Amino acid sequence: MPMRALFPVPHPFRSPSADTGGASPAFLPVGHDHAQCRRDALDKAEEQCRQHGARLTDIRRKVLDILWDDHRPISAYDILHRLNAQSAIDSPHSKPAAPPVVYRALDFLITHGLAHKLTSLNAFIGSAHPGRQHGAQFFICRSCHTVAEVRSARIGQEISAAAAVLGFEVQAPVVEVEGLCPACRPAHSAPCAGHDSACACGQSEP
User: Fold this and answer.
1) Does 192 appear as a known binding residue?
2) pTM for the full predicted model
3) Residue 120: inside a domain, yes or no?
């Protein structure tokens, strides 16, 4: 089976994050210092692992670093590609990593709350709120594909309450919501010319 079939490649996404406590999700501000953002994320990951007696091995750190390369969710295929490309530069005679290496690293990062999988995109992003597996809400713009991460205690409580009524054990309290971000809403305030049910403008038919 071709490797690309094993690792579907998503559209390019950008994933700003904010702990809003229930407020509107924040998107990356103008002048965002991503280099500092990236350093902070890796430092927090190191501290998180130390606190829980976990090992952020070299391969796990490299995968996490790739996740934080920018604020765009990335497929496992692209992680593998970048990992091997960098390895070829650092150690020209080293053997390329195999897909299971990436999956094991991602499993570790997700288990320790250092990364999330966006199921609807089949892609992964670094967690803006490092910690043991935690609930999060992701708002995905269907127009520009921007993604904002939010941790709302209220939403988490509502999910837990509904699960309790059903006798359901919540194991992955992650919510993915599609819609239009603030930047895209004005352009989609009315159906475009020639609008129909297959249109990508995001508007429902009248």
Assistant:
1) no
2) 0.72
3) yes
